[in-house]
Amino acid sequence: MTERSDVVALEQILQYVAQEAQRLHLSPVVVHCLRMAAFELAKANPAEDAIECRSLEAEDPSFH
After folding, report:
1. Which helix (H) or strand (E) holds 33?
2. What pLDDT score was predicted for residue 62?
3. What is the mean pLDDT of each run of 10 residues along the chain (64 residues)?
4. Is residue 51 part of a domain?
5. Which domain holds residue 52?
6. What torsion do the CA atoms of 14, 39, 55, 50 make, to the nearest 10 degrees?
């Protein structure tokens, strides 16, 4: 595994965990922090998968 694929995998895990946290009605702060972590990874790693994370920002009212 390369470092780039590790970052992409971590980004996908964070996105999944954020979705599950929201589904389980955890604190909006927790969901926001998880999504911001995925967003920051996407900015640091401008891969194709990062575009999906950036689209979450537009859909999610917890982003400011």
Report:
1. helix 28-44
2. 56
3. 82 95 96 94 70 53 53
4. yes
5. 3-59
6. -80
